[in-house]
Specification:
The chain is mainly alpha-helical and 361 residues long. Among the domains are: 97 residues, Winged helix-like DNA-binding domain superfamily/Winged helix DNA-binding domain (Arc Repressor Mutant, subunit A, Orthogonal Bundle); 74 residues, Orthogonal Bundle (Arc Repressor Mutant, subunit A), CATH 1.10.10; 80 residues. The protein contains 16 helices and four strands. The strands form two sheets. Strands 1-2 form a two-stranded antiparallel sheet. The chain has a two-stranded antiparallel sheet with strand order 3-4. Strand 3 and strand 4 form a beta hairpin. The longest helix is centred in the C-terminal third of the chain and has 36 residues. It is elongated.
Length: 361
Amino acid sequence: MFFKTKSNPILMDIYVPSIFFDIYIPIATGNQLKVYLLGYKSAQVSILSDEEDTNNRIIANMVGITEAEVVDCWKFWEEMGAIKIHKNNDEKNIQIEFLDIKDDFVNRHNTNSGSNTEKNDQGEETSEHKIDSSQFVNMYDEIEVISGRLLTPNEKLSILDAIDSYSFETNLVVAAFEKAKSDSGKIKSVNYVIGILKSWYDNNIKTLEELEIFSCMSSELKYKYNQIFKSLGFFRSPTQAEEKIMNRWIETYDMDMEIILFACSKSANISNPNLKYFDSIISDWHENGLTTMEKVLESERIFEESKKSNKKISQAKEKKSQNVSNQNGKKNKFHNYDQGISDKYTDDELNALIKKLNNQK
């Protein structure tokens, strides 16, 4: 039989793996760290002494928070994979199992099984997409250099959640912060950067290589936007609705830029050009299979010839109508002769008028 003299619990040493400081210190809040370390100490001491176990009520009093907040802290640590919560009938009365984070780290990072999933105790598959602690530390360091300030624990946790939700590499997260600073000159907020990450995720971007390809495509699109707007005399950035219209021409219709710019050249005859007008032109060409410049020019030539022909027909009809009108309204010499005074009076009236004039003499 082997045994050791029990020491005073207050004077005992508590072993904490150094990996804890690399992985969890950067992302946990002060209260979360206090709750974990107090619970961890209680678990270690209870093994080596007869000291009464510390419970959530005691921890809450020591830290200065509520028992509900203590439970929230435990939920955080369970999400981080540092503990496992065992619930009893009463939700407040829970048991905390501290997992071997060092052993777990070694199993996850130093094995080359080639499998992307592993099974937990319930036989459920869980993702093995994890990040090395040094990558975490380097990522946070780079982000703080870019931001020009220290990250808060909540911000670090938000970044960690984004990495876990979108399965991103740490260097891609750093790239998102670089883009955010490039766009506005400063980091507006971590949530703004997470918005960038979400947009990349929506575009199936998971690596720096995929981001580079996407950026090249975006740059090419922006160049085409500028060409179109310049041809229309617009000296501003396009709105999202306008980008959607131009994307339809470029990507959905797969129209050549020469055709698009040819359509935009018609803006010279419009006082207030807008994209909807040109969208109707380009959409009509697409629906009629005019996918090359030759087909468009041929269609334009036929249209102009038809326009001229219709104009000639219209002019001929107008001339014919005018001739008929002139024929109906034409006068002869008899019609043009002005009636004399003799036509206005009878013979007796004329004789009386002559006599009156003679008497006046």
